[in-house]
Structures are given as C-alpha cells and as structure tokens.
Amino acid sequence: MGKKLVLVAIVGFLLGNSIIAQEIDSTLAASGNVHILRLQRSYTLGDGFRIRSSVGSVTFNQSLQTLYLINSPNNFNTTNSEFSINRARLTMKGNLFDRRLTMVMRTNFANNYQSATTGSRSFNSELEEAFVQYSSNPAHTFNIGLRADYIDSRELRIEGEDLSFIGRSAASLAFDAVFDYGIRYIGKYRLGGQHILKPYLSLTTGEGRASLQKNYGGLKYGIRLDYYPLGEFAHGGDAQMEDFEREAKPKLLVGAVYSYNNGASSAFGTNGGRFLFGDGSGNIVLPNYTKCVFDYLFKYRGFYSLGSVIATSATVPTSIAGAYTLSGKFNPYTGYSSHQVDSSVKSILNLGTGFNVQAGYLLRSDWGLGIRYAVLNNDIYSAAFADYNKNYSFIVTKYLAGNDLKIQAQFDYNQVRAGLQTPNNKANYTGQIMFCVHL
After folding, report:
1. DSSP 165-201
2. pTM, whole model, 2 decimals?
C-alpha cells in the first residue's frame, strides 16, 4: 500500500498543471547582514527551485530526457538497439545585489562523447555553460564566459529541451560548434513600425569547451543579424520550435551569420586541439575556417516552419610543413607538394554545405506532428561527414505540459551517398522514443 501511495504522489506531481509547493522560511535574520530566504509558494513544471532574498535570487532547474533507440543499417537484415540518457541537466541561474547582473552555470551529466584525445587536448564534457551577463537596459546585453554561441544555425538558438524533434538535424550536427568561451553582445533596435533588428556579436576562442584548458589557435569572430519584419513572437516564441502561443498573426524571423575562426584545431570548432599542424620549426600553425548561415523561423496559428542553409570553407597557410600526432610527435610532410599539404589539412575539416527545412503543426489536443528534410554535401577534400547525405525525419509528440513534460516518437531514414551504396546497404533506418521532463 505504501508503494502505491508513493507512485500516485509522483504521477500527480508530474502531471499536475499547477503544483503547489510549501513555502519555507529560513529564520536567519539575527545578523544584520543575513536576510530571510523564501521558497516560491506556487510551482508549475519548468519553474525550477528558487531561493529568494532581499538582495537577489537563485533558481535551480533540472531536465531529464530518457531515450530508447533501435536502428538497422542494412535493410533490416540486422538491428541494433540501446537505452540511453539523452540529456540530464542541472542549471543554476541567479542575480545578487543588481538585477542587471546575472550568473548562469549548467552541467550535463549524460556524457555520450568519446575521444582519442588525452591530456591537455581533451575537455570537460560535463560543464556546458558558465558565464556572467550584464544588461545595462533591455536593448543592450553583454556576457562573458562559456555558453552556447549565437553564431550557429537557428536550431542552436533553441534549447535542447524545447526542440520539436528528439535531436538536431544532420546539418546542425555537421556544422554547429555549440559551446565556446568568449565575450558577446546582444542588441535590440526598433527600425520603425513592427520592424526589429537584433544583432549578436561574438569574440571567442574557437576551441569549444577545450579552450578552458588551452587555446591553440587565434580567435573566432562572429556576427548574427536577426530581422523581424512582422514584429516579435508572442512570449518569446522565437526560442521554441512549436507554436504553443498559436500566433494570431503571421510572425517571421530571418537571420544571417558570418564567422571566421583564425586557427581552427578541430573539424568545425568543437574539441579544440584535436588536430594540430606545424611549420618547419615545429611551431603550431593552423588553418582558418569560415562559416556562413542563412536561416528563418515562421509561425502562425499552431503551424511553424524552420530552415537553414550553411556553407563552410577553409584556407591553409603555406607555412604548414607537418602534423602532430595525439601523443605529441611531429610528422613532417616530407616530399609533399603544396597541393598535397593543402588537401591533407582540409581532409580533417567539415567543408561543404548543409540544408535543413522542417515544419510542424500543434493540434489543440496538444498532439504535435512534424517532418524534416536535411541534405549534406562535402567538398572534394573535406572530411567524410556526409556519408549519409539525405536525411528524412517524422515525429509525433504528446505534450502533457508543453516542453516541460512530453513523450516523443520519431522515425528517421538516412540515405547513404550514391557512391557508397551497396545492394545491402543503401540507408539507415532509426526509430526513437523519448520521455522528457523539465523541473
């Protein structure tokens, strides 16, 4: 009987539309410098656990995504399956003494990353964000530290918990660097009428989370311009994929991104130090990596559509004369022509183009339907990131409390590039089911 009561309590906690938490007072006001702390009285999923005082507040949020996956790489002759934790995040966000100053820290305890890097050429995979942000006013914001950057595709402007698909598109996975350490600026300018322009400026290491140990190259410079011709989305709807607000009027966001990484040491800006090159004296010399993105987001009465076009290129310094192994040994390119050096360096970078378009509709019964199509094309000397170059996805989602409590079922068909197909291996079929809760 006791176990049944516990189960009922847990289910009630998760499914309730408005879950009430007891207010607790910590009476520590004996000292003149200590103030009473209060927990918020009412609670709904996604609000987090908040501690308030007269000088500020700190909020803790937790999210968990459990996943079951089954796939077949060869027309169902064999199948593989796995259970995994897609995300297990803990986020702390707070301000002290000044509401304009905010500190954020986020960790993800689900670590699926495996790398051959060792020593200083590895990174802390649990820490995702740790930065301080200052807003002088609503139109100007600055932050410094580690966080998901602004100069990736539109999908990266949306948190993983708020995606309408279980994972990001093939185009995003091939080119978006995600986390990096640096200084950033966000602006908001009204151009008259409903027209709004939001610029994002970014100066980072270009090494991803590996920069917390060492920056091998130069700096990465980036800019994003987001244009809202029809006014802003309701209640921050541009930070979510589904149109939960059911926009009464069409809303559109068009964005453009340019970034230049002066000295790239990984395939597209993550896990810096993965690849190192040197000149004739062994001094580290690295290629330069450029990325351009054009994207959009549209919403109207429960319907949404999102798309991105991404193109990357690289230049290789003529002074590169060899490559370092992971153990630190320098192997000179003896007998290589300049063309061979150029192609050898580019062969470790994700160079080419990616295209992604997706759309979905949210029924009034809180069932969501979505489809996605992504295409990859790698340059002739690029790393082989586009072996599955055409990717189709279909998803059904039941939203129990918006993105804070949902169950998703997704099917993917990933087609093998024509030149690599065999009679028994033309595509990869994947089925996934994920449960997501955000406290």
Report:
1. SSS--HHHHHH---EEEEEEEEE-EEEETTEEEEEEE
2. 0.87
